[in-house]
Amino acid sequence: MACPFCNPKESGNTIIAENEYAYVIHDKHPIVEGHLLVIPKRHYETIVEMDEKTLCGTMLLVREMEKRLMERVGVKGLTLRQNWHPFLKEDELVVRHVHFHIIPREYNDKMASGIERIELSNIKKNEIAKKLR
Amino acid sequence: MACPFCNPKESGNTIIAENEYAYVIHDKHPIVEGHLLVIPKRHYETIVEMDEKTLCGTMLLVREMEKRLMERVGVKGLTLRQNWHPFLKEDELVVRHVHFHIIPREYNDKMASGIERIELSNIKKNEIAKKLR
């Protein structure tokens, strides 16, 4: 199977932002509104494999998106997360191409006590993407 | 109160590794064995505040520590996590100086269903640190 993160547009994703090294899309199975993925354009399975320029370029895009979420969406908390073999029960969701989750947080949210996915409409997704572009 | 991450040694921490921009210690309240913190030497509250060199330097140390955990400790999975205002119930644990958690993962661990802290003896801590230095 072709890697969906090597070919984000063919996989039906909208690119919210990008730089030379990485791009940003919505998580297809978001935990909360504004749950983004920052993904290097080249295929790596782990952070350890990433070359210095790609790792730095990817993190600069993470920094930029966190800034936009704070300034434009008004999020009051953020969690950055990158999993290598998280051994989730929902293992069919896992794509073996490094991706960094940016997850807005709020008081008393569910993240401290586990992970639950939500449904997010395309309208809502577009609304958030518009603020972040 | 003085920031404990600005003065790690005075706060009783042992530095496991460091580079020009960041250093590594054990998490004082680990979720699992080998739970590390990678911390920039300069004080920042968020990733957004971090200058490019510090952000990149910190991530290169993250990459190095993930490599050591894989090669020397034999971990089979890893989660990288950075929280800004995670709104944990255990809020007294939170230090307002950016720190990146590196958390070894294994099949059927507890992280997918919540967070539980463990006690880790100094002997065990030293054992792991020795492998990672």
CATH structural class of chain A = Alpha Beta
Overall 3D form of chain A: globular
Mean pLDDT of chain A: 85
CATH architecture group name of chain A: 2-Layer Sandwich
- What do we call the CATH topology of chain A? HIT family, subunit A
Structure, explained:
The structure is a homodimer of 133-residue chains. With 133 residues, chain A is α+β, with helices and mostly antiparallel strands. The first copy, chain A, contains two helices and five strands; from the N terminus they run βββαββα. In chain A, strand 1 (17-18) and strand 2 (22-26) form a beta hairpin. Chain A has helices at 52-73, 122-132, and strands at 17-18, 22-26, 36-40, 78-84, 100-104. Chain A has one domain (17-132): 2-Layer Sandwich (HIT family, subunit A), CATH 3.30.428.10. The longest helix of chain A has 22 residues, at 52-73. The A-B interface holds A 46-48, 50, 52, 55-56, 59-60, 62-63, 66-67, 70, 76-89, 105-109, 111-115 and B 46-48, 50, 52, 55-56, 59-60, 62-63, 66-67, 70, 76-89, 105-109, 111-115. Strand 4 of chain A pairs antiparallel with strand 4 of chain B, so a sheet runs across the interface.
